[in-house]
Specification:
- With about 150 residues, this protein is mainly beta.
- It has two domains: about 15-45, no CATH class; about 55-145, OB fold (Dihydrolipoamide Acetyltransferase, E2P), CATH 2.40.50.
- The protein has two helices and eight strands, in the order ββαβββββαβ.
- The strands form two sheets. Strands 3-4-5-7-6 form a five-stranded mixed barrel. A two-stranded antiparallel ribbon has the order 1-2.
- It is elongated and about 60 Å long.
- The relative contact order is 0.15.
């Protein structure tokens, strides 16, 4: 098991796990090299992703702003993507003018893919009228953050 696919609670002792059963997911098998690669982290991610379903309202913190969308860190540590096309029913030109890293945001889950570990989010589905998110962000911004009265 590669170190990157191992998850252990902070402060836990590795020696305490000797002789215990650990759930893993197979990543790769190589009969020629007599090798199997497994992941404990993937099992945990899939278990946490099972708590999400399309149509569910979630809250998270803006972790990063990219040209293609906003990475939202959800309450359980998973990241979701609010793609630029899912921000508003109106065209959004600049994400940096609407979002700031660290602000809390409410979104609707539109896609959950346990195979690749992705969660798709939308704020445009929360708009009663096209452009509501751009004009008055109260329905989606849970607390803090700057208002976006200007056009994006």
């Amino acid at each position: 098991m590669p170190w990157s696919h191992w998850y252990q609670e902070p402060g836990a002792k590795t020696s305490a796990l000797v002789g215990t059963t650990l759930p893993v997911k197979f990543l790769e098998t190589d009969q020629k090299r007599n090798r199997i690669v497994v992941s404990h982290r993937r099992v945990l991610v899939q278990q946490r992703m099972a708590a999400y379903a399309p149509g569910q309202l979630v809250e998270g913190t803006v972790a990063a702003i990219k040209p293609f969308g906003v990475v939202v860190r959800l309450e359980d540590g998973l990241d979701g993507l609010l793609h630029v096309s899912q921000v508003s029913q109106l065209f959004v030109r600049e994400l940096g003018s609407l979002f700031s890293v660290g602000e809390t945001l409410r979104c609707m889950v539109i896609k959950v893919n346990p195979k690749d570990g992705s969660i798709g989010l939308s704020t445009k589905l929360l708009e009663a009228e096209p452009g509501d998110f751009i004009k008055a962000r109260e329905p989606a911004v849970a607390s803090g953050g700057a208002s976006a009265d200007e056009e994006a």
